[in-house]
Amino acid sequence: MTSSVPTQDLAAQWSTARKLYPIYAELAREFVIELPSCAGLETQQEQPEREIVEQAGQWLAQMDEKIHVHQLRQFLQTTALVDQERMVALLQHFLAQSPKNDSVRDKIDFLLVQYFSQVAPSQVDDNDVDVAYVAQSFEPVLGPVELKSPVWLNALDRVVESARRCRSLDELLHGGVLEQGRKVKVQAGDLFFLPIALVAFARFGYLMRRVFFRLMHDDLNAILDGLNQLEEHGIAMLDCRRAQFSAQEPIVRLRMICQSWKVMFQAEYSSGQPLRMLVDLRACVVDAMSYAAEPQAEASASAPAAATKSVAAPAPAKAAAAAAGARAGIKSSTTVPPKPVRSAAKPAAAAGPVAPRAKAKFAVVDSSPQEFEVSGAPEWDPDSPTPGKKS
What we know:
Number of helices: 15
Order of helices and strands: HHHHHHHHHHHHEEHHH
Helix content: 55-70%
């Protein structure tokens, strides 16, 4: 099939290589990729010989094989090194590769969304993000694009609508919606690289990212509201081992972590953030709220029974005892004390962490979808004010 971009001439190849070299050199340093530096690119010559240009191309190709898509994703969303011009160079670099394997396709898929996220206004309405609008934004990369979309691309709109109906991040991540989108991408095969398809997938990824943002913030707000309610019940610690925290995690600390997540997610989308931790933490909080609400429910249920007992006539034996006590000059009551009820304000578990129930309300599977892969989580430090963000 015809490539979506023309083959670059020698001067264009060298210009692209010079733009990419600082990015690739920083990627090699950050992810400890062992590959000797490229001497020709180090010198940054204006008009090198063909041999130097070819060596630069070989060096970039070796780096492409070593760089994984999750590393590229994590790096580009935590660096100020890549401006719009370098994003165009990155996209054209991968689009010019032949043949294109699954790794190249996934890198292009991410770069399409990342590029459009950089050039699109932050306040643009979803309804304004149509194919024509996105195609115009990609003219520096693809040139003019014919807007007639193949019928098979309509499946992407159906996936977006399904995502918008999700009520939580857990439902989006593990409800099969993301798998539907990836299925369309995989089944496209080489048709994925048609200019109109690239535009459609860029639009799809951007709208999905917006849904993703909204659900992340909804989850964070739900967690923060739940923590406030638990504190009102006198609970100071939670068992959050399921979310990779401790068995006695202070609510004060959890609130600080959620606030830092909120700032981080608002600043930039990043697949490298601990999404499973966020989903599991909400499950811990929801379960603890259910546990804390039980004493109050018990109190409400036992109150009418206690009131009935308090006005009931005394039993004959107790009446006789009362009369005997009266004759002896002992003060007696004709009411039966109600059954003691555990306080809803300070339940028995308030002294320690609230343990999660055996059956969780938000099931989380071990693997995470490609589009929102949780990478970089092992080195994430929950004590850091902006986890996962480079200083």
